[in-house]
Design goal:
It is a single chain. The chain has 441 residues and is of the alpha+beta class. Helices cover 30% and strands 16% of the residues. It is built from eleven helices and 15 strands. The strands form three sheets. A seven-stranded antiparallel beta sheet has the order 3-4-15-6-11-12-13. The longest helix is centred in the middle third of the chain and has 22 residues. The chain starts with a helix and ends with a strand.
């Protein structure tokens, strides 16, 4: 005979449901998801998380929109992407998903990273190999994030909308990765070498977090089909995303060797120099001449020519470049004023017309101890002035990059569409007497 208590007992074992509860009581079963789900489980869990982020829980349209993008959710999105990258990449030495799980980046850094990553995604998410993204400089509180008295950054309403769209785009791209076959992507040898070096630096605590490594791999996959970026330009684009961080990254050995192997022998051309400049006999150093008009007047018998600077205190290199890649270094230690870079052969040299990218001068300038890129408008750089400046000209990919040689740090890059019918010349400028700038090549 079955007792009343037995008839009211729910189906199932004691070990599954716990102690028997009273009738009509809600029985809660606490379970934890498996840490490494199957394909279907992982996809469902990921889309549920994305759906939670994309849809506000508030039913009152006048109520403020809640901020429901948490640190764990940002890590989940990055881990899902990293797992797919580990699966489709032929190398197994990276273990991106494991490293992302151990990463200590902040919520603000992840928000900025996810926003930028979404901008780099292809317009057609099902064909990522057809797209080449544009990198941009980010700070933890950029792209719609506002700083709250030095504490955590909180999304502005516009930033929250952008963040939601970015997460939606990333979820679509993650599904695209799931459709790719295992071991179907092979990183170029140079890229693979740099990524492995970066992973070692991160494990040694020399990188602030794993995001630069993850971004470098993703940019490699998103490269435009048929267009192979040089490892230098690839590295620079990755650096531009993280160059506002407190601890900038020095170039790995493989990147630095690639740059310095293109050293060019650069010498100054006195026939292009402002009359006030003094060029050393070997053509490797320039300084402002000390002028005493009663003794020496550099403007005496001067005749203006279009190839000579007669306003700004500049001088060109003797040899111009029409192709190839070229690198040179200049010692500027102790100087407070200088200008360095490259210029198009037909660029104006007379008078005091602005020397910037609009007039075909792609240069860095140090003025009163402040470093700036001569863009339009001027880009002020949050970098200390280097003791030795490296200039890298890539005619093939239209790139002019500057480096702090002592610390092997990327400072700034111009992306230029060079007119290959004209040569590009090194340009040097200074206004200081007694403090020369010297070419080291």
């Amino acid at each position: 005979m079955t007792s009343d208590a037995e008839r009211d007992r729910p189906a199932g074992s004691y070990s599954s449901f716990g102690p028997i509860k009273e009738k009509n009581k809600v029985i809660k079963c606490n379970s934890q998801p498996f840490l490494k789900p199957t394909f279907a489980q992982g996809a469902i869990r990921f889309m549920k998380k994305v759906s939670k982020i994309l849809h506000s829980k508030s039913v009152d349209p006048t109520a403020p929109e809640p901020v429901d993008f948490t640190l764990d959710e940002s890590k989940l999105i990055l881990r899902e992407i990293a797992q797919e990258l580990d699966r489709i990449l032929q190398t197994r030495a990276l273990s991106l998903s494991t490293n992302v799980g151990e990463d200590g980046s902040s919520l603000e850094e992840r928000q900025a990273f996810l926003l930028q990553l979404a901008q780099n995604l292809p317009q057609r998410a099902h064909a990522p190999e057809k797209y080449l993204g544009q990198s941009a400089v980010l700070s933890p509180c950029s792209n719609g994030l506002e700083e709250n008295r030095g504490e955590a950054c909180t999304p502005k309403p516009e930033g929250k909308r952008r963040l939601k769209k970015a997460i939606s785009d990333l979820s679509t791209w993650t599904w695209t990765l799931r459709g790719m076959e295992d071991d179907s992507v092979c990183l170029d040898t140079d890229v693979d070498e740099v990524v492995k070096e970066m992973c070692k630096l991160w494990k040694k605590g020399k990188l602030p977090n794993i995001l630069p490594v993850l971004n470098f791999v993703i940019l490699s996959i998103l490269q435009q089909e048929g267009q192979k970026l040089s490892i230098v330009k690839h590295w620079n684009r990755n650096q531009e995303l993280f160059n506002s961080r407190a601890d900038p990254q020095h170039a790995p050995d493989s990147v630095w060797k690639w740059i310095t192997k293109t050293r060019a022998e650069v010498r100054l051309d006195p026939s292009t120099a402002n009359p006030c400049l003094k060029i050393s006999p070997d053509g490797r150093a320039v300084t402002m001449d000390e002028i005493v008009e009663s003794v020496y007047d550099p403007w005496k018998d001067f005749r203006r020519t279009k190839h000579r600077y007669d306003g700004w205190w500049c001088v060109l290199g003797r040899e111009g470049f029409a192709s190839g890649r070229h690198y040179w270094e200049v010692d500027v230690r102790g100087k407070k004023e200088w200008r360095m870079g490259v210029v198009r052969e037909s660029a104006p040299r007379n008078g005091f017309k602005s020397l910037n990218e609009k007039t075909y001068h792609w240069t860095l300038k140090l003025q009163l101890g402040r470093l700036m890129a001569m863009t339009v408008p001027v880009t002020k750089l949050a970098r200390c002035a280097p003791s030795v400046l490296g200039v890298f000209l890539d005619m093939e990919e239209g790139n002019v990059s500057f480096y702090d040689v002592t610390n092997r740090l990327h400072i700034y890059s111009f992306n230029v569409s060079f007119d290959l019918d004209e040569k590009i010349f090194p340009v040097f400028g200074t206004v200081e007497t007694g403090r020369e700038m010297r070419i080291l090549n």
